[in-house]
Amino acid sequence: MIAKIGLIGLFLQLMTNLDDIDKRILRVLETDGRISNVQLADRVGLSPSACLRRVQDLERTGVIEGYRAVINRSALGSGGFVVIVAVDLSRHLKADLHIFERAMHNAPQVRECHNVSGEMAYLLRVEVDDLEAYKHFHTDVLGTIEQVTSITSHIVLESPKDLRR
Predict the structure, then answer these.
(1) Region of residue 126 (left: phi > 0; alpha: psi -120 to 50; beta: else)
(2) What is the rounded distance in angstroms from the CA atom of residue 129 to the CA atom of residue 114?
(3) What integer pLDDT is reported at residue 79 of this predicted model?
(4) 160, part of any domain
(5) How many CA atoms lie within 13 A of 41 on its CB side?
(6) What is the CATH number of the domain that holds 17?
(7) CB-based burial of residue 118 (10 Å sphere; 0-12 exposed, 13-18 middle, 19+ buried)?
(8) Cβ-based burial of 104 (10 A; exposed 0-12, middle 13-18, buried ≥19)
(9) Is 147 left (phi over 0), alpha (psi -120 to 50) or beta?
């Protein structure tokens, strides 16, 4: 328990200790995680060695969790059909939530799964090839989970702002 309190305290201390340079580093890396350290240092006004130390500290403390490639699934000929799905469960018991979350974890069509407050228990971001593929997901994945009582589908027509891209 002391270790947990220590980590939480360290995290809270770190969050209050982020200065303007750390925040600039985070903003730049959020938009371009592949920027070289030299370019990053130049953009935030630091020497390359000082910039690298700060980035490593942000990584070590968990502020920066990782880096990833953003894949344009439409360019690959798949996943261009996006649906935001609201799902409710018959009960909100821990075991039921766990069953649903495990099923979503194992469903490759589900790109995001959020447990939310409000009228529904979950919001999903589902990416599939087309309407027929979504119908398959709706029927053969969501439709087989006993705890699911409500599914509301919202087909995404356009995403004028999407910071994941």
Answers:
(1) beta
(2) 22
(3) 67
(4) no
(5) 12
(6) 1.10.10.10
(7) exposed
(8) buried
(9) alpha
Find out whether 64 and 55 touch, Cβ atoms under 8 Å: yes
CATH of residue 140:
3.30.70.920
Q: Which amino acid is at 108?
A: P
Q: Which helix (H) or strand (E) holds 82?
A: strand 81-89
Domain that holds residue 134: 81-155
Q: For the segment 14-63, what is each residue's pLDDT rounded down to a tens digit?
A: 555 899 999 999 999 998 999 999 999 999 999 999 999 999 999 999 99
Phi, psi values for residue 42, rounded to 5° = -65, -40
Q: Could you read off the pLDDT of 148-161 as tens digits, one per residue? A: 999 999 999 998 99
> Do the domain assignments include residue 11?
yes
| 141 and 89 within one domain | yes
Domain count, the chain: 2
Mean pLDDT along residues 87-103: 97
pLDDT in tens, 109-139: 999 999 999 999 999 999 999 999 999 999 9
CB 87 within 8 A of CB 121: yes
Is pTM beyond 0.85? Reply is no
